[in-house]
Each structure stands twice: as structure tokens, then as C-alpha cells.
Amino acid sequence: MSQVPTSPAAAAPTAPTGASAKPIIPFDKFAEVDFRVARIVQAENHPSADKLLKLQLDDGSGTPRQICAGIRGHYDPSSLVGRLIIIVANLEPRKIRGEESRGMLLAASDLPRDAAAAAGAERKVILLRPDADIAPGSIVS
Question: Residue 7: CB partners within 8 Å, gap ≥ 6?
């Protein structure tokens, strides 16, 4: 007879292997990061990159925001439209393969990108998002 887990922690997957810890930073440095809720209003394949999607976001500011995210192959662009996600809103804008990216979405993965490629393993990528509806632009703390 098999035993049924009695708590969610007992049924949780094991921690990913190969992930190295990053250096400890002071709280003041972490507090500089502006996490916000955003709604994906348009999603399409990046025209010049096989692993990127180009996302148009409503971040509550009244000004459209575009980000490029390395989630192509993990999500179909049409399935993302309307979803709420968590973004880092105060990253310096940068060009990624000719497209401006003004932020970064938060996602979890079970393997570091390099480790998955080296092992020929499939990497699971999951978008972090609120578990209830909340307005774009809401502060994440």
C-alpha cells in the first residue's frame, strides 16, 4: 500500500541540481529593484532570435512597455495574451537582437540554462504571476 503525502511540502519536487547560489547582497541593493504587475497585451516571436518572444505590456503607467523574454519554446505567444506577470520595471533599457527591451519578466526554472544545454535535458520554465486579479502597475514587495 502506497503512502499518501500529508503536506504540500512532502509532495514538492526536489530542488534543481546545478544551480549555484549568487553572492549575498545588502538589503538596500535589493530594495532598489522595482517589481510590478503587468498584463501581456500582445505576444509574438522575436523576428531575429529563436529563443525570444517579444511582449507588449500594460504596466499601469499609461505608456506601452516592450520586453523581450527567453521563453519561446516554453509558451505559445497566443496563450500569453491577457496574463498577468511580474516584471522588473526599473532595468536599464537595452537592445536585444535589434528590439528594445524595457524590463524583465520573472520566471522559475528547474535547471540553469547552461546545465540543461550541456546535459541535453529539457528545461522547465514557469512564469511567476499573481494568483488573483490585480491591477497592472501594482507594486510587488
Answer: none
Which amino acid makes up residue 36?
A: R
Decide if 84 is inside a domain. yes
Contact between 100 and 52 under an 8 Å Cβ cutoff? The reply is: no
**Residue 42 in grid coordinates:** 500582445
pTM across the whole model: 0.82
Cα distance between residue 57 and residue 54, in whole Å: 10
When divided into structural domains, the chain yields a total of 1
Indicate the SS3 state at residue 9. helix
Question: Is 44 contained in some domain?
Answer: yes
C-alpha distances (whole Å) from 69 to each of 41, 51, 54 are: 14, 8, 7
Note whether residue 38 is domain-resident. Answer: yes
Query: CATH number for the domain including 88?
Result: 2.40.50.140
Contact 107/8 with Cβ under 8 angstroms? no
pLDDT, tens digit, 9 for 90 and up, residues 50-96: 999 999 999 999 999 999 999 999 999 999 999 999 999 999 999 99
- Domain range enclosing 117: 31-132
Over the stretch 103-137, which tens digit does the pLDDT of each residue have? 999 999 988 777 656 677 788 999 999 999 999 99
What number of residues does the chain have? 141
